[in-house]
Amino acid sequence: MSAPAVTRRLLPTSASRRLPRWLDGLLEAIGLPLVLLALWALSALVAPNRRFPAPWTIAEAFVKTWVGDAFFVDVAPSVSRLLIGLALAAVIGIALGLLVGSVRWLRQLVEPVFEFFRAVPPPMLVPLLALTLGIGDTAKIVVIIAGTVWPVLLNTVEGVRSVDEVQRETATSYQLSTLQRVRFIILPSAAPQIMAGIRQSLSIGIILMVISEMTNASSGLGYRITFFQQNFQIPEMWSGIILLGIIGIALAVLFQLAERFVLGWYRGLKETERA
Amino acid sequence: MRRRLQPVLLGLLGILVFLAVWQLASTVGWVNGRYVPPPTEVFAALGRLVLDLHYWRTIGNTLITWAIGLGIAGVLALVLGTVIGMIPVLRRYTRSTVEFLRPIPSVAIIPLAILLFGLDRESSLVIVVFATFWQIFIQVLYGVADVDPVARDTQRSFGLSAPSRFRHLVLPTALPYIMTGLRLGATVALILTVTGELIIGVDGIGRLLVQRGTAADYAGVYALVVTAGVLALIINLLVRVIERRVLGWHQSVRAEVVL
Prior knowledge:
The complex is a heterodimer of chains A (275) and B (259). Chain A is built from eleven helices and no strands.
């Protein structure tokens, strides 16, 4: 981690180096956000703009809009649909991916069709599936699955293919059962690829959740935000944007934790290889 | 020869089987034939569209939004990513802000974009640029920071000037990352271009799909989904070709050729 002594002397020492470590870290983390927030507040005071309300106006609108009933009517259903959709997509994607990835002729048979499905921009599926499935909860969940399953599936296929040849042969000679093979050899070595696929599907999932609520719904986050914008309830609209941002960030953090849990051994291995 | 041919033939067979099952499901009535028209009807609709100049203009409009968005995001990401990535102080102080802004779903700012720019292409560009920028920016940031310590120390003791340092040290290191960012960005930009057309109503294949749906031309809706898929495949292919050309010297590409 630390640079060799020679280069360290050559590097310009910044003023913050002299601060105690924890203060330095804190300043790094919240310095810029605070400056930006201050600039925003200042501009709201000096030159008020209806389209960019002051931070405190938005904060007030946030509490009034989302804390209370609206949370259960609009937020909780949206988020649970998203989570259900993502979970089902992950399960289906991994299961199918394991199957397709282990059988060579099957992979060659279905890969072009699956690649095409992955290529279709997922938002196009929203009006398409609304034709057959209507606009209920099921339709919204199916849209999320239909858009997010492909990255998981195809990445799992890639991951299964990249299983080490020696490990595969060892498993054969030790006569591991199929289940053991999947559990101890295929899944661990495909895990990094699978997680990368799930990460891609997270952001697609949020897009699909919001879009399906923006186009045909009478509740949900996407619907609410559009409603506020169309009625020029600007602070409320901003509070909705911020709520969606928080959801996005929460999902990213949750995923990072999950990834650390699943791939902890992998990161450790990489680090040892690098050292 | 046979080994080479087999995957192609199996792949074609897979496509045929898929189309056959779809045709059967739609005509026999496993699914509602009105809302899920058989492929024969979909390709007939596609055939009609292809003969219509309006269809090509619509595709052109989609591609224009896509290209402008990708271009703006790419330039911004390259400039900011290089500057921030090369100056450690900046990198440390912007990290939390970047980590905070990056996961914000770009569709969240659609209402804001409409509020600022109305129902025009500019609104679409806002969300396209926002989403695409992060994809490329993060890669540039990683790439610029990935310079080999030994090479950097060598460069320091030889006293290279800033421009030649950039040209011979930073750029070759960052280029594979930049190309990865570009590849991811091209896909994301298309997704949000289409989103803008569907939700905001900017002209393009997304809006045409909504119009076909309202006109109860369901075969047309499917034909446009096929169009979007083909468009995305062509874009992927183009980016890969560019990647291969630009990185022809790099191990990651050379290794692929050897295998």
